[in-house]
Every structure is written in structure tokens, then in C-alpha cells.
Amino acid sequence: MIVEKRILDFEKLGLGMFVHFGVYSAHGRGEWARLAGVLTNEEYDALCHTFCPSPDWARELCATAKAVGCTYVTLTTRHHDGYSLYDTCGLNEYDAPHTAPGRDLVREFCDACREAGLVPFFYHTLLDWYEPSYRENFKEYLVYLRRSVEILCKNYGKIGGLWFDGWWNKPDADWEFDELYGTIRRYQPDAMIINNTGLSRLGEAGHPEIDSVTFERGKPFPLNREGSPKYLASEMCEVLGTHWGYAELDFNYKSLATIIETLCACRRAGANMLLNVGPMGDGSLRPLDREMLLALGEWVKIHREALYLPRPADIAVTGNEKDFLLRGNGCYYLFIHDIPKGGSQDVVLDANLNPYADVFTLPESVRAIRWLDSGLDVPYLTEGDRVTVCPTRQPYGESYVVKVAKIEVET
């Protein structure tokens, strides 16, 4: 099996921010507004004259990503509407430098990422609602697509990877992926190549140059790499509400608890989590998005030791079926869900419910088990290689959703 360093490095990134940003952001009805019957094509095209991000949009976005604990950011350099945030160098003028912004937003994004110590990734659409050749001359369109990707690979320094989306629009077409991926390898040999398989084919790779499979809003599962010619990473993308691009009337948001549990489920499967935001037209975040992200960042800060380098331990845990073990940094990390909090039965739901005991076997002897948040001891019993962890109720004033215990072992 071939194991590429770029893929192992990608797995260590753990948590990324997905950013859907384009002229649709100025309209506030989601990223599919052009095709969803919300606007005519003429009305939609006119949005490029009102879409104008503030000068500090990228720095502010990256500052938020950093506060969340993200290590990389994936930006929609061109979405399905065909509008490019980068200078297309004469391919067309439906791009940020030749419309209201009057400047290269991808360059601003890359500069801000590097200043913040974040790795920039580029999303790029495969399908295109604006470019006529997509409908009229597909072979010609593929040349246009490759030239677009070549610009991104040549003009913005080293990037983390390219994230494609939309081949599912023409699943039986010859997308000439050998040529497309070859263009990337020629200019960015260390870049991750990711091609989203959509909602119906989660976890599939498809092409030998693919470096990571995707799980779009689907529960990630551990990859079976047995017999595979190449070691693959995995990544799950999720959205806070129900739209990827900014939608001012979207009130159907997931809870913070759900986002925390989803992040943990990703790490259980060895997958990265790519959590989406849709900035408004000026590049700032909707207050609800920003506050949810910052609250997630508080949880991540407490548990960050367990979230990036550790990998699935492949050790069964009996107790709460959601609980699991990761191994890394010379120890184990036990992710424990649904620990009830203490307090009066007149105030606290399930005040008489006792926490689950988790049981598993370890090849090493346990030295200590402590909570990551406080460093306090976690009660446990050992019998040979069998370990029973008996968490006590969370103190009143705490409710972590998922709490992590660090298991130190004899080396």
C-alpha cells in the first residue's frame, strides 16, 4: 500500500472551516439561488455589482477560524454559479477583479490564512451554470476548467489542496480527470486532491489520484483499507443550518451539542471535520454563526490535546455505545458521552440517573486516568487487562456533551 506524507499530514489537521462565499452571499437566499427559481439569470448576474466584501473580510474570517480551533480553511473560489473570486486572467470577466470588488479575493484569503497560521484549501466547482460551453461543448468546457484550475495552482503559492464538487451532475460523462489531476500534480505535487461524491455515494474514491474520500452531511465510518493500493484519508463536511451559502431566513440550525457530537464522531472514524459557514455579502458572519463557532471553540480548546494527532485505537468499548478510544501522544483518550450533571432533583433532569461505566481491554497497564478539563482523577478499576472506567456525575454548572478522559499507561 502506498502511503503519502501529504495524506498523513492532512489527517492531523482534524478540524477545518468550509467557506461558501460568492455573489449569492449578497442576496442572502443560499448558494443555489441562481438555479432555485429565486431570481432570473439577469437579476442574478446583477448581483456582481452589489457584492463587495469589506477590506478585512479575510482576516476577520481567519481570526474566527483560529478561535474555533480550525487548522485549515476551504474557500469556494468558484461555485456552481460560475462566479470566480480570483482573477481568471482573461478566461472571462465574471470574477471579483472585474466586478464590484475590483480585487482578487482569493489572494486576500491566502494572505490572511498564512498570517494566521492556517492552511488554505481551494474549493472549485466542476459543473457550471454560467459558462455556455458546459452545456454546448463539454470537451471545450473541460479545457476551460483545467485552465481555471491551473491559474489557482500557479498564482497563489503553496496550498493544502483542491476540493472539487459537481461531477455528480454528469455522472456518465468523461470528465478527463487524468488531465485535471495531472495539472494539479504538475504545479502542486503536495496538494490534497478531494472530489466530493455527494449525498448518495459517501466514502467512495473513484480515481487513483484522490487523496481523501468525503462524507457530505453523512455519518463517517472507518475506512476498510485492506487490499487498497493507496492509503486514503477521509473528511466529513457539515453545515450549521440547512444552507451552505448565507441564507438570512434559515432558522433551522443544529444545536451546539449536535455539532460537538458530530466532531467527535468524525475523529472516532479517523475523519477530519470540515464545518461550513456562509459569510454575508460584506464577508462578515451572521451573528448566530459566529457565536456558535466561538462556543464550539471553547469546547475544542479544552479538549484539543485529544482532537488532532490521536487516531482510532481499534479497541471496543462496552457501556455507552457512543463512547470510544483514541490513541496518541503515548496515551489513550476516552470520549465519554451523556454524563449527567449533579444537582437537586427539583432542578436537574435525570438527577437520579447514574453515569455509564465503560469497559475495555488495554495491552498496557494503566498508571492514571484524569479528566482533560480539570486534571482531576477519574475513578476506575482494573482486572488483568480489563479496565472499567466509572465516571462520576458532572458538577452542577458543567455540561460538556462529550467529556474526554486521558489514560496514562506504562510504556
Would you kindly provide a written description of the structure presented here, covering whatever features stand out?
This protein has 411 residues and is of the alpha/beta class. The protein has helices at 5-11, 41-45, 57-68, 105-116, 133-136, 138-155, 177-187, 256-268, 287-303; strands at 15-19, 72-78, 119-125, 161-165, 192-195, 212-216, 233-239, 272-277, 311-312, 324-328, 331-337, 358-361, 366-371, 380-383, 386-389, 402-409. It contains 9 helices and 16 strands. Helix 8 (256-268) links the parallel strand 7 and strand 8 (272-277). The longest helix has 18 residues, at 138-155.
Total strand segments: 16
Q: Could you list the spans in which at least 5 consecutive residues all have pLDDT below 50?
A: none
Question: Going by CATH, what is the homologous superfamily of the largest domain?
Answer: Glycosidases
User: What order do the SSEs take from the amino end to the carboxyl end, as H and E?
Assistant: HEHHEHEHHEHEEEHEHEEEEEEEE
CATH architecture of the largest domain: Alpha-Beta Barrel
Radius of gyration: 23 Å
- What gap, in angstroms, lies between the N and C termini? 29 Å
Number of domains: 2
CATH hierarchy, class of the largest domain:
Alpha Beta
Residues in helices, as a percent range: 10-25%
Q: How is the main sheet built?
A: 8 strands, parallel
Here the CATH topology of the largest domain equals TIM Barrel
- Structural class by secondary-structure content: alpha/beta
What is the strand content?
A: 15-25%
Could you give the order of strands across the largest sheet? 5-4-3-2-1-8-7-6
Mean pLDDT: 93
